[in-house]
Amino acid sequence: MPDWLKDAVFYEIYPQSFKDAGGDGIGDFEGIIQKLDYVRDLGCNAIWLNPCFDSPFKDAGYDVRDYKKAAPRYGTTEDLVRLFEEAHHRGIRVLLDLVPGHTSEEHPWFLESRKPESNPLSGRYIWTDFVFKWGGGLNFISGEAERDGGYVINFFKCQPALNYGFLHPSESWHQRIDSPDALSTREAVKDIMRFWLSRGCDGFRVDMADSLVKFDDENKSGTCAVWRDILGEIGKEYPEAAFAAEWCSPWQALSCGFHMDFYLDHLGNGYNTLLRDYKSGEDHSYFKKDAGGDILRFLRDYLPRYNDTREEGYISLISCNHDTQRPSFNLGKRELEIFYAFLFTMPGVPFLYYGDEIGMRYIEGLPTKEGGYYRTGTRTPMQWTKGKNMGFSEAEEKDLYLPVDPAPDAPDLESQMEDPSSLYHRVRDLIRLRHKYPELGSDAAFGVLFAEEKKNPFVYRRGSMIIALNPSGQEAFAPVPASGRRKVYEIGQGRADDQGILLGPQSCLILK
């Protein structure tokens, strides 16, 4: 386990929307480099950089055409290496987004694989042995190649699935997970990882990490076997490299070599109840003021995950990501403040999505961009100032990758930095608090002290520290004796004594 993850706070950057230094309306590596001081001063000491490899961008870069080449619209491969170096000078680590489950249909591997004559890459993807044969719960494309067969896709038509084999082959075209072609795919992934790690990358967030082996992969045992091989080998060669899984099953992900697993926004799971618990048109999110939320719905799902895996790695809570609505979609400023107090005092490695620190909004109704569809409204440009294009770019408005928030009161960083009561200052203060006290770090002990059905506050401990949260609009009391403790941070008003902890409406108290 890389030791630096104990104090890591990640900042997710969607490169095309962060900062345009070249003036063409699309964010780039130079723009990110120019803003590294900002990331550092916010308190984030690690970056997750969304896909930045060469791509036709039919799915925002998750359709890779060349894993070893930076996308020209962001800069050169040398520019990306310089980004690593500049980040390291500021004490910031950088994870790249690895997409191992599929490639672009324009990838040279696929162009070879689709040829009718047999060649070394014929088995790099999953093909049937007859153009009109398909089924088994998989999605196929046929009639797009001279090869007599159909190929499996993971998402869009442009994303053919790489071949890692089948756990229980049942068709003539199924290969086992230890077949030569499946093993060759593993080695190709290792080669990609070595390429970037040797150039200064600090690890990878892995897209769809649980989806490699197809068909009857019970308990993901086949996929886990693949990752144990890949990460076991790469981890020995690069022991300080960190690996984060898009999996949402930590008992599986952490057991096969990942150090972090995202607690994702799956409908009905514990994370979903915190921010986006929409049912029958009503919002019952826990951090929504007086929405009838219940912290126990989160804890019933989270605690078994945490207790079963806390010795193996970290569960990563997120503010949101490029696939979800921003938290400001349904939470106001004070509600966000209480949520961020929770995010940055819980165990595991937290991830903050760019712009969430200033309450950037989910922009509804935008036309889809590069396969974004409903997700497009979360991928709009970072709003740095009140100036032209809100400081994102000097390009003409019509040339922007996506429009900035058009509202007159759209949040911007410059204004919030000048306002000590802003959301930006709250987030920065909470991140600094996490760094100041190791007991708020990734692996310090966690335990629930008070949590009752449809009641507030929620009180928990991190080491010897106590955190009490009351997102409701009413005063709340917890019979948790706290005499002799000092107040180290407060939102709203609260007091603690030998009788317990009393919190005012929408408040937070952190005690040591």
Overview of the molecule:
Strands 13-10-9-8-5-2-1-14 form an eight-stranded parallel β-sheet, covered by helices on one side. A five-stranded antiparallel β-sheet has the order 15-16-17-22-19, with helices on one face. A three-stranded antiparallel β-sheet has the order 18-21-20, with no helix packed on it. The chain is built from twelve helices and 22 strands. Helices cover 24% and strands 16% of the residues. The protein has three domains: 3-99 and 182-436, TIM Barrel, CATH 3.20.20.80; 102-161, Alpha-Beta Complex (Oligo-1,6-glucosidase, domain 2); 446-511, Golgi alpha-mannosidase II (Immunoglobulin-like, Sandwich). Helix 5 packs parallel to helix 6 (221-237) and helix 10 (333-343) runs parallel beside helix 12 (423-436). It has helices spanning 29-34, 36-42, 77-89, 108-113, 180-197, 221-237, 250-253, 270-275, 295-309, 333-343, 413-417, 423-436, and strands at residues 10-13, 46-49, 53-54, 66-70, 93-98, 139-141, 151-153, 203-206, 242-245, 260-262, 278-279, 282-283, 314-316, 351-353, 446-450, 458-462, 465-470, 476-478, 487-491, 494-496, 501-503, 507-511. By secondary structure, it is α/β, with parallel strands linked by helices. It is globular.
